[in-house]
Amino acid sequence: MNQSDNAVTFHPYFKVSDEQLKAFKRLAEDLIEITRGEMGCLFYGFTYSQGEAYCREGYKDAESLVSHLDNVRDLLQRLESISELFRLEVHGPQNEIEKLREWPSIKELSPKYYVLEGGFRN
């Protein structure tokens, strides 16, 4: 059964040096374990390609994303100390994007926002 889609996805891209890759992956595993217990998380994981890492993550709504960022703040700071966040996107429906634009924890990251204008959720 199709339903309206209020989910938001968060797309951080990191540059990671070869020297820091092992430490980055250890922190990524810690992030995965902490996030696994979050109620509003739909999916979460890391992918890697030629000196870059990407965190693939989705949440049921804006509040779930903000809750996640608050929950992992310390680990994210450690991650950013050994890598460079070079691109950040947030995707979702207009009403959820508008909520996120006002949250200080999102605003300080200066993401590029993409508004979902159609689709469904199974």
General description of the model:
- By secondary structure, the protein is an alpha+beta fold.
- It has a single domain (8-116), classed as 2-Layer Sandwich (Alpha-Beta Plaits), CATH 3.30.70.
- It is 39% helix and 33% strand.
- The chain is built from 5 helices and 5 strands; from the N terminus they run E-H-E-E-H-H-E-H-H-E.
- A 5-stranded mixed β-sheet has the order 2-3-1-4-5.
- Helix 1 runs antiparallel to helix 3.
- The longest helix has 16 residues, at 21-36.
- The chain is globular.
- It starts with 7 loop residues before the first strand and ends in a 6-residue tail after the last strand.
- The model has no long low-confidence stretch (mean pLDDT 93).
Distance between the termini: 6 Å
Instruction: Report the average pLDDT across residues.
Output: 93
Low-confidence stretches: none
Number of helical segments with 4 or more residues: 5
Number of domains: 1
Number of strands: 5
CATH first level: Alpha Beta
Structural class: alpha+beta
Beta strand %: 25-35%
The radius of gyration is: 14 Å
Instruction: Please identify, by name, the CATH architecture.
Output: 2-Layer Sandwich
Strand order of the largest sheet: 2-3-1-4-5
What helical percentage do the residues reach?
25-40%
CATH topology, by name, is Alpha-Beta Plaits
